[in-house]
């Protein structure tokens, strides 16, 4: 924040509201440049980890899925569902949770969209099977890679 408000309470409030830095007026231009450079050094966003299960690898940063050395062409929804299941590391993920994470808030909870997407994803992933349906509407990555 670059502001004329100089009281400590103003600084605390500004930082509390989400500001990364607070520079009250008057200021020296060299200090402003130094603060911007310092913030830029902190702004390096770490890449999300690559998710793996046996011969299946999902790279969220590059949006690439590889199975047995072969890159798979997945739709954005298939990619999001697979990413969610791999991140769950074998724990159950409900169809409702997949709808919340891979679709927007307008998704119909009574649709077969998740079931259809899982079916297409299974076909693209091939054998041996990686996705398990545990109960109607609950899914997970298979236990044995």
Question: What is this structure, in a nutshell?
Answer:
By secondary structure, this protein is of the alpha+beta class.
Describe this structure in words.
The chain has five helices and nine strands. The protein has helices at 8-16, 29-42, 76-87, 95-102, 113-125, and strands at residues 2-3, 23-24, 51-53, 56-59, 64-67, 70-72, 93-94, 131-135, 138-141. The relative contact order is 0.12. The strands form three sheets. A four-stranded antiparallel β-sheet has the order 3-4-5-6, covered by helices on one side. The protein has a three-stranded antiparallel β-sheet with strand order 7-9-8. A two-stranded parallel ribbon has the order 1-2. With 145 residues, the protein is an alpha+beta fold. The protein is elongated and about 65 Å long. The mean pLDDT is 88.
């Amino acid at each position: 924040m670059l502001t004329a408000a100089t009281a400590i309470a103003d600084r605390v409030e500004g930082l509390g509201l989400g500001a990364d830095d607070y520079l009250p007026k008057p200021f020296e231009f060299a200090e402003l440049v130094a603060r911007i450079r310092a913030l830029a050094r902190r702004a390096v966003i770490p890449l999300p980890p690559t998710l793996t299960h046996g011969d299946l690898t999902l790279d969220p940063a590059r949006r690439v899925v590889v199975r047995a050395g072969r890159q798979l062409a997945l739709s954005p929804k298939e990619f999001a569902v697979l990413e969610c299941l791999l991140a769950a590391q074998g724990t159950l993920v409900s169809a409702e949770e997949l709808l919340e994470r891979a679709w927007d808030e307008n998704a119909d909870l009574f649709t077969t969209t998740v079931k259809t997407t899982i079916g297409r994803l299974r076909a693209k992933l091939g054998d041996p099977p990686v996705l398990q349906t545990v109960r109607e509407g609950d899914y997970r990555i298979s236990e044995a890679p």
